[in-house]
Amino acid sequence: MKPSCCSEIPAEALETIGGKGGLEGLLAALPDDMSIVRVRTFHHACADVYRIKILELLRVQPLCACIIRETLGITKSKLSYHLKILQEAGMISGTAKGTWIVYGLTESGEFCSSMNAKVVEGSGNGGRNG
């Protein structure tokens, strides 16, 4: 007999998740809301052209903001905005060196950058064309 909560789900479909604890088991497998927010923040930080370029520059070596800004040809305020998002996502960190800050990749930033490289190489496309 089907549980009353699942009246819209065919019995055959419910059987496929029976070994996983049913709907309750699937819900229990989901990360908590705070973890979901962290994942969303991570993906948001990885999903902008300038932020991807910043990560790729920092993959080469740690750089000060003035070199990043000049390389990308963007304003100080735009760079500051993107650096803030990357820092809040835990992808980059800054270290004071005299009167400026040198930014470098964190472990999360290295992970995102390595995933980007796999996509560029063609191995991150689900097996198509690569």
TrEMBL record:
Q: Which InterPro entries match?
A: ArsR-like_HTH (IPR011991), HTH_ArsR_DNA-bd_dom (IPR001845), Metal_resp_trans_reg (IPR051011), WH-like_DNA-bd_sf (IPR036388), WH_DNA-bd_sf (IPR036390)
Keyword flag RNA-binding: no
Keyword field: DNA-binding, Transcription, Transcription regulation
Q: Does the keyword Transcription apply?
A: yes
Classify the source by domain of life.
Answer: Archaea
Gene Ontology molecular functions: DNA binding; DNA-binding transcription factor activity
Cite the HTH arsR-type domain residue spans from the record: 31-127
Q: Which Gene3D superfamilies match?
A: Winged helix-like DNA-binding domain superfamily/Winged helix DNA-binding domain
- For this entry, the protein name equals Metalloregulator ArsR/SmtB family transcription factor
Provenance organism: Methanogenium marinum
